[in-house]
Specification:
The complex is a heterodimer of chains A (363) and B (297). Chain A is an alpha/beta fold and 363 residues long. Chain A is 45% helix and 18% strand. The chains are: A alpha/beta (363), B mainly alpha (297).
């Protein structure tokens, strides 16, 4: 569906939305079994079959922590949260998770193994270029690990990473860190864009800050070489690996973001998500301790260290509101991805979980 | 089972095997709770399976969905059974169509590249996917090993010779299924011995033993149902290990090894049976002697 057609469709079927969102799952099941049996529908779930709930609508209610707000308002308020925490973000992560978030992120990236290529026939260079899109990648935690794995561990310099975030404050922190931590070649393979993950047709390269002499090159697929603020689109079928770590629960419309991921990924491309989840795998005692920690201690730490209690209150509430492992896996499948095995991997008893999906080949 | 008597035995087996199945089920579900509700694309299914999936959906409706936008799953995968059922069709394998495409292509590269990420990535390329697509397989190289185990086990039924379906012949057939990859099998055993993969590997071994005994026409419904499977599992595992170092013509040494082990386990079973009979006889005789002395038992 083109962007222009979306509002028209929304106007045409206003009554469908309420019936889709409030319908009993069983009726949906019977509806789905018809559409599923037709290969044409399965091949293009992001096409004309996009359900209404997966179309961004600024006035639709969603949740912000335990509050109910509209999608547009959530976007604003999430932006506010991350503007206020950007500076202390990494310090807070270490304090809140006892540094354990580094282990999760390392495991996440090592499992994805970006830049890996089989040896192939001797003499030929088997390394194929890869384009990684790190959504909500703000401070670059995941992107820098990706670059290290791809360039150093797997020896594949043809891996480029586009760090995308809706929030320029987070991106600025990321770019600062990139200039301190990355080698020149890694820096050259990195680009920063400001984009809303629910609509990657509108991206804007991060405005250069006046102090730096950085040579942030932009990949041809994302941004024209002229500097900002020309908005451009991430084209269809252009990304090998789409990652989002601890970001997707802040999205106003998760199904829309999943469909957008489906659109930009190449067939065979992988959607990978690292996110907090339901910590129910080690039994109720562990879960109780975890809940006590997150609702009791984390807002307090936020108040003491970052001077911002409300943002961290939102953080723990949003974790609580995020769907369980199985429900989120179903949302990924619903967006057209195929999943292997259970579709997710629990980390630390389900405190966090890794979800992976692959875009199937067009049939 | 052609004769009437055989059919009757089958009936009894069916009736009595259910408790055994019920006893096994919790074990199976404990290891695969997570796979119980894996979603996959909707396909016209047997009515039994459809009932199951709607039952799951009903179950889901009772939980309050956190997001109104969450759509229910359209398909569920029943968990892998750890025993052979007479009453139900076999559950679908653990691999989806896409996984099958990648794994079957990757399997062709195993003799050269081993059970490795390389083989998987080459397989993904052959199947028309990207290097990164191997991330679909949740267990990486172990998925490839599992593919070998599952496909070889399932192929056993078609290779069974109706004249000679002894346990030994079937086990030998299964061992021969390893011959293309036997020089890489030590690597595979090393991966299977990693703690996170041990439960899945043992379950696969148990299912193989069950398959072999089922195909050989075993209808035991007593505790020997378990002992037979346990001893066959041990024999098969040791024979497989022997085979990885067997360079003899047509793996004749392995065959001789297998025969010796099966004979030994038969001997042990015979000895155990004799000891059991002696204990029973002596005990009842002892009771009778005491009764004849006027003890009220």
């Amino acid at each position: 569906m083109t962007m222009a057609a979306r509002p028209a469709l929304r106007r045409a079927i206003p009554s469908l939305r309420s019936s889709t969102t409030h319908q009993s799952p069983q009726i949906q099941h019977s509806l789905r079994s018809f559409s599923c049996s037709s290969p044409a529908c399965r091949a293009s779930p992001a096409g004309s079959t996009t359900p209404d709930y997966a179309t961004p609508d600024p006035s639709r209610p969603t949740h912000f922590g335990f509050e109910t707000v509209t999608e547009a308002e959530k976007r604003e308020r999430v932006a506010g949260v991350f503007r206020s925490v950007a500076e202390s973000y990494d310090k807070m992560n270490d304090l809140m998770s006892f540094g354990w978030h580094r282990v999760w992120k390392d495991h996440f990236v090592a499992g994805l193994n970006p830049g890996f290529s089989p040896l192939g026939t001797p003499g030929s260079d088997p390394r194929s270029p890869q384009h990684i899109l790190d959504i909500a990648g703000g401070t670059g935690d995941i992107a820098f690990r990706m670059l290290h794995t791809a360039h150093v561990v797997n020896g594949n310099p043809d891996v480029t990473v586009t760090i995308s975030d809706i929030n320029p404050a987070m991106l600025s922190v990321g770019r600062q860190r990139a200039q301190q931590q990355l080698t020149a070649s890694q820096l050259a393979a990195t680009s920063f864009v400001e984009a809303n993950a629910e609509d990657l047709t509108q991206t804007k390269p991060l405005a250069p800050d006046s102090h730096s002499h950085s040579t942030i090159t932009t990949t041809a697929t994302t941004i024209p070489t002229t500097n900002p603020p020309i908005s451009s689109s991430i084209p269809d079928n252009s990304v090998d690996l789409y990652t989002v770590a601890f970001g997707i629960r802040n999205f106003s419309n998760i199904p829309a973001a999943l469909r957008e991921a489906y659109r930009v990924l190449k067939p065979g491309g992988v959607f990978a998500c690292l996110e907090f989840s339901k910590a129910d795998r080690y039994g109720p005692v562990f879960n109780t301790i975890y809940k006590q920690w997150s609702f009791g201690a984390i807002p307090l730490i936020g108040q003491l260290v970052a001077g911002d209690r409300d943002s961290y209150q939102y953080l723990v509430e949003s974790i609580e509101r995020f769907p369980s492992q199985g429900e989120f896996r179903d949302m990924i499948v619903d967006a057209g991805f195929v999943v292997g095995g259970t579709g997710y991997e629990n980390l630390t008893g389900g405190v966090a979980a890794i979800h992976k999906g692959m875009k199937p080949r067009a049939q | 089972m052609s004769s009437t008597a055989g059919a009757v035995t089958g009936q009894i087996a069916r009736c009595v095997q259910r408790p055994a199945a019920a006893r096994l089920a919790p074990i199976a579900s404990r290891t695969t709770t997570a796979t119980n509700l894996v979603t996959v694309h909707c396909r016209p299914a047997a009515s039994g399976r459809r009932t199951l999936s709607s039952a799951c959906l009903l179950l889901r409706t009772t939980q309050s969905p956190r997001l109104s936008t969450t759509t229910p799953t359209t398909r569920t995968i029943p968990t892998c059974r750890a025993y052979h059922s007479y009453d139900h069709p076999p559950p679908p394998g653990p691999f989806s169509e896409t996984e099958q495409a990648i794994l079957s292509a990757a399997y062709k590269h195993v003799p050269e590249y081993g059970f490795s990420e390389e083989a998987l990535a080459l397989g993904a390329r052959d199947a028309g996917y990207l290097d990164i697509s191997t991330n679909l397989l949740p267990e990486g190289a172990f998925s490839l090993i599992r593919w070998h185990l599952v496909t070889q086990r399932e192929a056993l039924a078609s290779r069974v010779d109706s004249n000679n379906n002894s346990v030994e012949a079937l086990t030998w057939e299964r061992l021969l299924g390893n011959k293309d990859v036997i020089r890489r099998w030590q690597e595979a055993l090393a991966i299977m011995a990693q703690p996170s993969h041990v439960p899945a590997s043992l379950k696969e071994l148990a299912m193989l033993a069950d398959e072999i005994l089922y195909l050989s026409g075993d209808t035991s419904v007593d505790p020997s149902w378990y002992t037979k499977r346990a001893s066959l599992s041990a024999v098969y595992a040791s024979a497989e290990l022997f085979m990885t170092n067997d360079f003899s013509e047509g793996f004749q040494d392995t065959r001789a090894f297998l025969k010796r082990r099966l004979n030994e386990s038969a001997e042990v079973r015979g000895v155990l049976r004799s000891v059991g009979e002696w204990v029973t006889f002596t005990a009842s005789a002892g009771v009778n002697v005491l009764r004849s002395k006027g003890v009220r038992i």
